[in-house]
Amino acid sequence: MTYGEANESDGAFNISNFWDTLNQAVKAVSQEATKLSLAFSKPPLPSQQDGEKLADSILKSVLTLSTVYYWLPKSQGVSLRRQVRDATVEVLEGVAQLVEVILSSPLQSLSQEQLTSTGGVWSACDQFAQLPQDNKAAVLVVLSAQIGVVKDAIEEIEQALAEADDPYSDVLDDDQGGDEPRGNQDTYWSEKDRSVIGPCQGLMKASAACLRKLTSAVKANGDVSTSQNLAQLDDLADITKEISPCVDDLALCLYPPMDYSGVESNASKLATLLKKVLSIIRSSHVCGESQLTWVQFLDGAVDHNLQKAKDLIHNS
User: Fold this and answer.
1) Quick check: 132 and 80 in contact, CB under 8 A?
2) pLDDT tens sequence across 269-309
3) Which stretches make up the Cyclin-D1-binding protein 1-like N-terminal domain (predicted)?
4) Structural domain spans, the chain
5) d(Cα 34, Cα 30) in Å, to the nearest integer?
6) Phi first, then psi: what are they for 227, rounded to 5°?
7) What is the value of pTM for the model shown?
8) What is 135-163+187-315's CATH number?
9) Residue 12's closest CA among 78, 58, 76?
10) From the CB of residue 300, how many other CB atoms can be counted at a distance below 10 Å?
11) pLDDT band at residue 6, thresholds of 50, 70 and 90?
12) Residue 12's beta-bridge partner residues?
């Protein structure tokens, strides 16, 4: 196939041609990196002429890979393009590191560093097989990563609450000896603290539920056949990326000594974000009649938990 062909098929972008050519280009980089590494794995050094050939070949393979990446137009979806770009950059950085290691190590035998760098290029190239093939799949990758982080934050708080009144007990094991508890109240939750944590956990769980439900909705209704629907999927990916940092901020300020104004501020931020996410879901093509029910339910749950947290904070 001549380069330039993958871009055009009756004037439209041909995505299956793109993937075929990209995968060929990645395979070529992996092979050239292996050749280069082998040539410099034991004495004698390649002749200057052979060295130049090897350098030209790997440079050509890297430029080809970069060129093929640039064929992927933004009209195929920004989330997809971003993930292909990140994978491409990882390969390029891997090759650069390998070349650096070869240049800086004396040639007696194959160094551990060179082996590791060669393996790094291989694993960066292998990642291409796992890349999402369209924007819908790319958005599902983003949502899956968010779900993981939010789930961890929820579990950490639940574990700390279950471990007794002192969430730092595993970090600050009693060195004093004896059974005397530590006198520092700053490491304990008061009854009021614990009551405030309840609705904050409610907001965190609403975040997780929103991401899970959105994942199912994208799987069922996500469409990449029109530019409007592609853009809506990208908007959903962009706004949901803000959820896990917001959940983390709220979780962090729940640990003692609890600063109520910080808790209120972070709970309000998360609630505002979730309502914005739900409103974007509601107006997107992934929201059918069956999705509307949970969108409305979660919207109410967010309001309820935020109000409850504020009431408990201001109730002396």
Assistant:
1) yes
2) 999 999 999 999 999 999 999 999 999 999 999 999 999 99
3) 22-162
4) 15-130, 135-163+187-315
5) 6
6) -65, -30
7) 0.86
8) 1.20.1410.10
9) 76
10) 10
11) very low
12) 9
Q: Which residue has the tokens 């093929």?
A: 68
Place of tokens 């959940």: 247
